[in-house]
Design a protein that fits this description.
Molybdopterin biosynthesis moea protein, domain 2; 6-stranded antiparallel β-sheet; 5-stranded antiparallel β-sheet; 25% strand; 426 residues; Dna-directed Rna Polymerase Ii 140kd Polypeptide, Chain: B, domain 3; 19 strands; alpha+beta
């Protein structure tokens, strides 16, 4: 329509026609993405031997082969075939049917004879058979599906990519506005793990979004370094009595370094680490343990440059008072090797009475956790509130959370935990 150029009084609107503009770009096929994606999933027109390991082919490959418990039989996947649909699109809409193609899978059953003495296997029988698995819905040319005679559209959704994701609540959960941090571990296939802190800085874990547990419960259920070494040497052929989980000492040393205090004629001393003393305001004068010279005065705030200068001056060890030791946490179990008496357990806080017991026992070496202004005591505090003390108790607790209402046994708890995280076939 030609433009109408009327008076300039504004009574009539000026209309223009854009129908004669040239086409800049062709209109794309907006449903081509969905159609190409579903065709790649089915690979219906691809020869079975030429199919790539994607889509439906990948699903079958991930499930098979299936071995029986005794190791005498195996079921293998050979190929699948999608036959022609029984009814076309129009007939399915008229009859109230689903537009789908029969899916048949060729499976191979292998049966072995096992020598009881040597354990060697020999093939006794091999059979192949096509098994009907069901009807696979097909996509129409319009990118839709016919389900029970009704045309439906499947909306594509985003899949959460595997990885580790960190987040916080922006201070909205607690009344003080404190940030509560969390992390989510999403595997490619398997159970999700959610780690979260509460207002008291206790770290908890959720397995598949179930009820939360102290994070140390999960760590107690994991294999210790000694058990991992045995699994490398002997595989999974371990007796239940040989499997040990991480203990408190191993967990703490996994997250924290150590500050070792030694006692000499001049009292307790510790190694001088410039990084550990950086930014610290001294409550007492800093004295070189070897020379007895004061290298920094009381109430001095050690800057990085000052701490580095003290180290360059040859100071490797400094004297500390009892106040610098009290309130720290023991890094290792302190045990009397003669009587078996435990003076202090890993993670236990050093009080005045506990330190006096250690001194009276004649211990000259006191390993403590390297907790300072930059490394907090969160995992140690989590371990302190955890009621579980060993692997068996942790496995039972995890089983009760994952299978509420079912009475746990050591065998079922072990099988569930291995299946959640360490079974490649699940």
């Amino acid at each position: 329509m030609n433009a109408i150029t009327k008076s300039f009084t504004g009574r009539k609107r000026i209309r223009k026609s854009f129908g004669r503009l040239p086409e800049v770009a062709p209109m794309p096929n907006l449903i081509d993405v969905q159609r190409a994606s579903y065709e790649a999933f089915l690979q219906m027109e691809v020869h079975p031997d030429a199919r790539t390991n994607t889509g439906l082919q990948e699903v079958f490959k991930s499930v098979f082969p299936i071995d029986d418990f005794a190791g005498r039989g195996r079921l293998e996947f050979v190929q699948y075939e999608l036959e022609e649909p029984k009814y076309d699109v129009e007939e399915c809409m008229q009859r109230g049917m689903t537009y789908a193609a029969p899916l048949k899978v060729r499976l191979r059953l292998i049966v072995w004879d096992v020598d009881e003495d040597t354990g060697s296997r020999s093939v006794r029988d091999i059979k192949e058979q096509d098994v009907y698995m069901g009807d696979m819905p097909l996509m129409t040319d319009n990118g839709t599906f016919i389900i029970n005679g009704t045309e439906r559209v499947i909306v594509s959704q985003m899949h959460r990519s595997p990885g580790v994701f960190f987040d916080h609540d922006k201070g909205k959960t607690h009344s003080s506005g404190k940030y509560l941090f969390a992390a989510r571990v999403i595997p490619y296939r398997g159970s999700w793990l959610d780690f979260e802190f509460d207002a008291k800085d206790i770290c908890y874990v959720r397995i598949d979004r179930k009820r939360k547990l102290p994070a140390t419960t999960l760590l107690l259920a994991l294999d210790s370094a000694h058990t991992e070494k045995l699994r490398v040497e002997r595989g999974d052929a371990l007796e239940p009595s040989e499997i040990r989980g991480m203990d408190a000492e191993e967990i703490l040393n996994e997250f924290y370094g150590q500050v070792v205090f030694t006692r000499g004629p001049k009292g307790w001393s510790r190694p001088f680490d410039p990084e550990a003393f950086r930014g610290v305001k001294l409550s007492e004068a800093l004295v070189d343990a070897k020379t007895g010279q004061v290298v920094a005065e009381k109430d001095t705030k050690l800057t990085p440059r000052a701490a580095r200068k003290i180290a360059e001056g040859g100071t490797t060890e400094v004297l500390v008072g009892r106040a610098d030791i009290l309130g720290r946490y023991v890094a290792e179990d302190l045990v009397d090797m003669t009587t078996g008496e435990i003076w202090a357990e890993a993670g236990e806080e050093l009080t005045e009475a506990k330190l006096a017991t250690i001194e009276n026992a004649g211990l000259d070496r006191l390993p403590t956790l390297a907790i300072d202004q930059s490394v907090g005591p969160w995992m140690r505090n989590t371990l302190a509130v955890d009621k579980n003390t060993n692997r068996d108790e942790a496995l039972m607790d995890i089983y009760r959370v994952m299978r509420p209402g079912e009475p746990p046994t050591p065998e079922t708890a072990e099988a569930l935990f291995r299946g959640l995280f360490f079974d490649p076939e699940r």
